[in-house]
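Example S7 (structure tokens).
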């Protein structure tokens, strides 16, 4: 009996990556085996395209990348984007003003540029990643104390806004999140990928919608799609999938929506889900 799964969409942080931001050998082997059998693999992340592509290369597969929570889909570095849905400039600026009202740290990104108010630390994930990459494949950083100026200059290219705060400022974080959701309602998609952040894209953008777009492009029916994730920004794709898989370390709302709960990200839960629904056939 052949597995019915023809497309696997895998979240990165808290799912594919362990607590040390590494891809385990077990996960690499299972993904590679599925890919070699003709199963389409897509990394589906809130991260920028360049970061997800870096990990796809580590695994050794050529795969579509669903980046910025579904606002951008692309395969290779030099390929034309399959899909992109940027934030309108005026809305991006309003988001920036609300974040600043609450004195929150906010950043924006295009597919290859990260816009920040202050320089990233040497431990920042993208800074660490850049050390291993040639110049043309590195994330570019634009540092500007007034990010609204940078937004003006990159109109039509801002895919996502992200607000990250330390524990001491959590109340303001969630207040700002609810205010943005209330003001913009269906115009924006506002979700968290952890307990210290929220991320903002155009209202029609989600991992679920991007997965559906990719599946349709590949002529793969919904029931032949498996999605694996752990957090709020994964809910839409978990609900869309024919088989939705929650990580053992995932949020309760993700587990409740899932068809199956696998092991944790530190115990190669991705490989175990692929073994169960793809490789055992």
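Recovered sequence:
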């Amino acid at each position: 009996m052949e597995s019915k799964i023809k497309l696997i969409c895998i979240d990165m942080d808290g799912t594919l990556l362990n607590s040390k931001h590494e891809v385990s050998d077990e996960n690499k082997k299972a993904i590679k085996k599925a890919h070699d059998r003709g199963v389409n693999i897509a990394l589906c992340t809130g991260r920028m395209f360049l970061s997800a592509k870096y990990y796809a290369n580590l695994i050794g597969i050529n795969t579509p990348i669903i980046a910025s929570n579904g606002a951008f889909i692309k395969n290779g570095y030099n390929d034309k984007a399959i899909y992109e849905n940027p934030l309108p400039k005026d809305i991006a600026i309003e988001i920036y003003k609300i974040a600043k009202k609450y004195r929150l740290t906010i950043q924006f990104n295009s597919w290859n540029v990260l816009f920040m108010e202050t320089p990233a630390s040497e431990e920042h994930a993208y800074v660490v990643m850049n050390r291993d990459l040639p110049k043309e494949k590195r994330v570019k950083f634009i540092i500007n104390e007034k990010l609204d100026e940078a937004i003006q200059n990159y109109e039509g290219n801002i895919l996502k806004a992200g607000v990250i705060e330390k524990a001491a400022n959590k109340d303001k974080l969630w207040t700002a999140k609810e205010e943005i959701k209330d003001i913009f309602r269906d115009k924006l998609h506002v979700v968290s990928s952890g307990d210290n952040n929220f991320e903002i894209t155009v209202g029609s953008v989600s991992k679920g919608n991007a997965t559906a777009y990719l599946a349709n492009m590949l002529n793969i029916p919904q029931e032949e799609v498996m999605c694996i994730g752990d957090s709020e920004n994964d809910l839409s794709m978990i609900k869309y999938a024919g088989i939705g898989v929650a990580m053992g370390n995932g949020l309760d709302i993700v587990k409740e929506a899932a068809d199956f709960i696998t092991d944790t990200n530190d115990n190669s839960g991705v490989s175990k889900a692929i073994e169960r629904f793809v490789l055992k056939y």
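Notes on this example. The first strand starts at residue 7 and ends at 10.
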